[in-house]
Every structure is written in structure tokens, then in C-alpha cells.
Amino acid sequence: MKKTIALLAVCAALCGCADNVEKLAGRHLDNAKEAFSIGNYNVAKQEIDSIRILYPKAFEARKQGIKLMQQVEEAEQMRAIEYEDSMITVAQAAFDQIKAGYAFQKDEQYQDLGLYTIKSQDPTRNTDRTYIRAQVDELGRMTLISSYRGSSYIHHDWLKLSVGDLYVDTPESNDRHEFKDLDVCYEWLSFINGNDGGAAAFISANKDANITYTLYRKTGPDSSRPVYRNLKMTKDDRYAIAKLYELSLVLSTLDEHKKAREEADRHLKFIRSRMTQDLSEEGVQEDK
Predict the structure, then answer these.
(1) Among 87, 113, 237, 241, which one is most buried in terms of CB atoms within 10 A?
(2) CA–CA distance, 194 with 207 (Å, rounded to integer)
(3) What is the per-residue pLDDT for 13?
């Protein structure tokens, strides 16, 4: 008889303890619900995490917290999609406002992405000079091209651009196309997808200044030598590259927001599928 009474006392104590744990965890759950209701999702998630960390045996509160966490995550992705949609609208409007100032080329058979250029820099119009030109693809990735013309090849690898004491060096590039036409040698050295060491940004920032540049060729593991010195960029070239640089910023921003929107949409679909699965499992358990 005494053993039975003692056992009942222990059970009662354990039940009381469990009730107390659920009560304490419930306060965090209430706080999470309140934060969620006003759109303070970070606080809501912190409160739900507190239940898991502080009260691992508060099974009912943890169960409700999991459901609430899914709702919070769903709302976060819906908010992200709304934000990205608004930013896409802004970036698209900025692009629509300036796109008429560029030439667009795309060979549907061979090119996945079209290219924006400035007509004055078209190579077919500039066969008689050495200059720097640029192009931007539909994702906003900008390529600078050092176009050389001379009686012999110089096999240049990189450039130095200067305005007074300010200068910028491009990285070395192996993307060189060489050809000869009527005994004239041509070299096109490309710095693809913005890998120009900041040269395009430098030209854009100094478009109203006199920019000079020198072509270099690598001669050893740690050395180079100038092979064409102190070339002057024309005003038209400076402005053309600055204009294309502006386009690259607009298009890359647009592409970034589109990718972020797609990512948020994928997360939202995953969260909703998980929520649907959990509801189905609950229904099966209730039927049992």
C-alpha cells in the first residue's frame, strides 16, 4: 500500500513538472505568435528556437512551434517575392528608358545571349586604328576588348590605363584573337564578363579626363614589358564605354533580382509542400 502511494506521488510530481514545462514554453510560443502577427519574423523565429533549446521536453509547445515556424518561413518568402517583384519593376523601367541608345545583336542560331554595343565602336568602322571597345550581354556582363592594328603582331596580354597619377592595371588575359588582312595584323584581347581589374569602372569614372593606356606583353613568370605606349582614348570611346558600363549595372541588377525572385519562389514551393505533407501525416494519425 505504501509503495502504491509513493508511486502515485511520483507520477503526480512528474505530471505537474510536465505541465509547468509546457506552461513556460507556452509563453515563448505566445510571444512568437504575437511577433508573427505584426510581421516581426526574426523575433518570432527566435522565440520558437527558444522553446526547442530551453524546453526540449515540452512536446506540445514544440509541435505547435514547428507549425508556426512553417508559417513564418512561408510569410518570409512571400515578403521576399513581393520585394523582388517591386525591384524588378524598377530595374526593368530603368533599362527600358535607356535601351534605345544601344545597338543589339543576336544570332538566334549560335548565341544564347545577345550583345549590346555602341555603333561608333563597331570593328567594321574602326579597321584603321588601335582602340578599346566594349560590349554587354543580356545579363549585364561586360567585356572590354583591346583592339590592336599594326604591321606585325605584338601579342599583348594586359593593359595599364592612366589619368595623371591615377592608374589601373587589367589582369592578364589569354583570350586573344589574332588575324591578318591585306598584310595588316590585328589583335583582339578580351577581358570577359567584368574580369578587367576595374578598367571599365575607371574609364566610366574618368570619362571627361584624358585617359592614356599602354599595352603590355608578359615576358616571364613575374615580368612584362610595354609593347605599345601612351595611346590616347578618344572622347567618343570614353563615353561609349561609360555608357555601356551604366547599362551593365542596370542589367546585372535586373538579373540579380530575377534570380533572387526565382530562389524565393523555389523556397516557398518547398515550404508549402512540406506543410501539405505534415497535414496529410496528421490526418493519417487521427484516422488511426
Answers:
(1) 241
(2) 18
(3) 38
